[in-house]
Amino acid sequence: SDHMENIYGYLMKYTNLVTGWQYRFFVLNNDAGLLEYFVNEQSRHLKPRGTLQLAGAVISPSDEDSHTFTVNAASGEQYKLRATDAKERQHWVSRLQICTQHHTEAIGKNNPPLKSRSFSLASQGSGNSPGVQRRPSQNAISFFNVGHHRWSAGQHRLSRVPILQPDHLVDVREMMSQAEGQQRDLIRSIESLPASGHLTSLDQDLLMLKATSMATMNCLNDCFHILQLQHASQQKGSLPAGTTISWLEPKISLSNHFKNGAAQNFSAEINKPASVREEQSVSEPGQLTREPEEVNPDEELEDICDDKEDDLGAVEEQRSVILHLLSQLKLGMDLTRVVLPTFILEKRSLLEMYADFMSHPDLFIAITNGTTPEDRMIRFVEYYLTSFHEGRKGAIAKKPYNPIIGETFHCSWRMPKSEVATDAGSNLSASSLSEQVTLSKDLEGQTELGYYTVKFVAEQVSHHPPVSGFYAECVERKMCVNAHVWTKSKFLGMSIGVTMVGEGLLSLLEHGEEYTFSLPCAYARSILTVPWVELGGKVNINCAKTGYSASINFHTKPFYGGKLHRVTGEVKQNATNTVVCRVQGEWNSVLEFTYNNGETKYVDLTKLSVTRKRVRPLEKQGPFESRRLWQHVTESLRDGDIDKATEHKRALEERQRNEERLRAETETPWCTKYFLKEGDGWVYHKPLWKTVSAVQTQQMDSN
C-alpha cells in the first residue's frame, strides 16, 4: 500500500519533431489508474491537458539514455517522457508499473473470460445477423466453405494456448507464421476470382474481408513486437555485460506480403538475382565510413538521364491493387509505414526531387544581385515560386522513392555568369568584386572561371520520423540555403496529403541577410482515376534584418468551379505594413508580379530554361548515393518489369530493417554523414557562413 500513493512532479514530454521536449506537470492517480499531465503545477486544478488509462499499459525504460521512458497505453497512445536523472526515472517507472499491474488485474477479475466457442463463416450462411440479411445472395460467404476449415482450425489452436511465459515466444511466432500463411491463402482465393461476373475479386464483402484479415495480422504483429521489447528489456536487466540479445524472427516475413496485390513467392535465397542478394547484405556498417566526402564538381558530368514519367492512364489494369490498398486504410491514417504499390513510383529518390527544385540556378544566384532589401526579397519570392514546376516530373501524381536512412545525393550546376541577371553591377564595387574573386580562390583553389557553380548535397538523416536534410551553396556569390523536411503523409479518402514539416534558411553573406521559409502541402488527387498533383497551404518568408516578409497562398481547387494550381501572395515591409509587390497566377504556368509603382512583370514557367544538373557517373558514386542505391529498381521500372522492381525495392527495405534491428541490439546510435542536429533542426556540417567567417578571419590576421 505504501507504493500506491499518488505521486506528482515535473517531467519532460516529447511532443513532435518541431516542438520537441517540453516540461509538463504529471500526476499519477492510483485510485483511478490514470496518468494525467498539466501545463504547470499552478494549472493542476484545471482540466488535464492529457490523460492515459494505465490498465493494460506497458511501461518501458528507453535504451536511448538513463533518463527516458515510455508509457504505451492499451488504446495505442504513447507518452515519451524524460526524468531529470536515472533515480527519478526508476521512481516513476516502478510506481507506474505497480499501478498498471493493479488495475490490469482488477479488470481481469471483474471480467472473467467468455466460454470457448467455435465460429466459422459457414455458420453465417443461415444466420439472421444484419450482415447476412444485408444481401440476398450468400455466394461470397459460401465461397469460403471449401478451404476455410484450415483457417478456423488455426483460430482454435490459438484460442487453446495457455498464458505464455517469455520463453514461449518462439512458439507464438511459429503459430503466427502459420496464421500468416493461411491468411495469404485466403487472399489468393479472393484474387483468383474473375474480374467480372456474379462474384468478383472486387466484391464489397470480399474487400472488407481482405482488409479485416490484414488488420488482424498487423495488430498481432504490433502486440508481439511489444512482447519482444519487454523480453529484451528483462534479458538486458539480468544478463552479464557484453551479452547480445537474439531477437526472435519470423520464419517468413510478416510484412510486405503483396506485390501489387498478388501474393509474394517466397523462393529460396539461392534463386534470387545477385543484385537482390547484394541489396540485402548487411556488410555496410562495418565497412563503410560515415566521414563526409568532398565531391569534386569536375568529376560530375551533365546529366543525360531524362526519366519522363509515363502516363498511368485511367489505372484500369491496376484498379484491384488500388482497391486492395484502400480497403486497408482509414481517414486520417498516417501513411509513413504503409507500403504503396511499385507501379506508382517515380524513377528517382525523394532526395533527388529536392535537387530538382534548384533547376533554375540563374534565378537563385540572381537573388543576391538585388540592389535593395526589397529587390532581394522579391527576387527570392520569384525564385521560390518557379522552383515547384520543375520539381514535379509532369502533372501525374507519382511518388518518389522513400530514401533509406544514410542515403545521400550529390549534384551541381554550372551557370554562365553572362546569363545571371544583374543590376548594372551597382551593388558590386571594385573592392567587393576583388574580395569575391579572392574568396573564391581561397575556398576553391581555382582561378576565376566564366561560370558560377552551385553545389548540392542531401541526406536522409532519420527513418522514423522520415527527415531529409539538404544544402546548396554558390561560393563565388557567398550564398547558401540549408533546409530540413519531415514528410508526413495522410489518407484523405480519394486523396493523399503530404505535409512538409520543417524550415529552410537562405543566407546572403554578402549582405548579412538570412531568409527563413517554409514549404506548402502536396496532395495526390483522384487516386482511383487519373491521379494529379496539387499544392495547398500558406507559406511565409521572413528576413529579420531588413524587416521584409512575404506571405504566399497555394490555393486548392474548390469542389465546384475555380482554377487549378492557383497561387497568390504579397511582399510587405513590416515596419510600415506597406505591400511592395503582389503576385498571382499558377505555380506551374504563368505568374504575374505587380509592383507598387504600377509596373507588371509576367513569368511564363513553361518557357523558362532549365539547367541540367551535373552528377557523378554511377561507377564513381558511393553505395549509399541515391542513383546507385536504387539503380536496380529504376532499371526495372524503365523496362516495365513491376514485379522485379518490387523485389529490388523490398530487398532494400529489408536491409534497412535488419540494420535498424542490429543497431538496437548493440545499442549503437545512428551517425549522420553531412548534417548535424541543432535544436529541432538539422544543419550542414560545413556551411558556407562558417567557412567564409574562417577565411575572412585568416585574411585579417595576414594583413
UniProtKB/TrEMBL annotation:
Coarse class of the protein's main subcellular location: Golgi
Keywords from the named record: Acetylation, Endosome, Golgi apparatus, Lipid transport, Lipid-binding, Membrane, Phosphoprotein, Transport
One Gene Ontology cellular component: cytosol
Residues covered by the PH domain: 4-101
Record-annotated membrane-spanning stretches: none
Amino acid composition bias (Polar residues), ranges on this chain: 117-136
Quaternary state and interactors: Heterodimer with OSBPL9.
Stated name of the protein: Oxysterol-binding protein
Organism whose genome encodes this protein: Struthio camelus australis
Lineage start: Eukaryota, Metazoa, Chordata, Craniata, Vertebrata
